[in-house]
Design goal:
The protein contains 13 helices and no strands. It is elongated and about 55 Å long. The chain has two domains: 4-31 and 153-206, Endonuclease Iii, domain 2, CATH 1.10.1670; 38-146, Orthogonal Bundle (Endonuclease III, domain 1). It has 216 residues and is mainly α. The two termini are 30 Å apart.
């Protein structure tokens, strides 16, 4: 993320807890995974829903094997694939329906191409992609962060973000999404980096390290 240094300076200036996190954790090392189309990214996200990583990876391998010679199938191929073969690969009926809807919406332009999506703002991307069956706001926010590298995304419905907030700010209870969103206004326009530091706060707590912070 090219905005790492400005993001750290801003977060440290507006928030003493973030300042401590940055000092103790170090620079944000978030690096977007470029190269996948929005269609492929969302198809993979659907495959991983409610499954452990290894199970989802196994299903995806069997699914991709249905399309010999392809690194990953395109929308037209998915829409034309045999539903029974997709089920045998391991997808539930709901996920097959979601993948077919994703493919149809990629073909009609609702799901933009990689070139087009880069010209859209975050809200427009969310509005278009949540129209896909099985794709919610959280899924789109993960795409914005990890695929597109957008700098100002705060996924307040993410458990890790909220738990990181609870840990870093020494809250006695889990904050609501509304509370995190309201507090996070001060982090703009670098809420993605703030989210990354909240995720790292959870990692530190799992490793037995005290989280820097103050009670608020």
């Amino acid at each position: 993320m090219s905005t790492q240094a400005p993001a750290a300076r801003h977060l440290a200036r507006v928030d003493p807890v973030m300042r401590r996190l940055i000092r103790e954790i170090g620079p944000c090392t978030l690096t977007p995974r470029a190269g996948r189309s929005p269609f492929e990214s969302l198809a993979r996200a659907i495959a991983y829903q409610q499954l452990h990583d290894k199970a989802a990876e196994s299903i995806l391998r069997r699914f991709v094997a249905l399309f010999p010679g392809r690194r990953f199938p395109g929308p037209a191929e998915v829409l034309g694939a045999d539903v029974r073969a997709m089920r045998r690969a391991g997808f539930s009926r709901a996920k097959v329906a979601a993948l077919r809807d994703l493919a149809a919406k990629a073909l009609d332009g609702t799901v933009p191409t990689g070139r087009t999506i880069r010209r859209l703002d975050d809200d427009a991307i969310v509005e278009r992609l949540i129209a896909v069956r099985g794709v919610g706001r959280w899924t789109v926010e993960m795409l914005l962060i990890f695929q597109l590298g957008r700098p100002d995304v705060l996924p307040v419905d993410d458990f890790g973000v909220r738990n990181g907030f609870r840990i870093a700010y020494r809250r006695r209870r889990m904050p609501t999404p509304k509370e995190v969103r309201r507090y996070g206004e001060r982090w703009k326009p670098y809420r993605t980096a703030a989210s990354w530091y909240l995720w790292r706060a959870v990692d530190r707590a799992k490793n037995g390290k005290a989280a820097p912070g103050v009670t608020i």
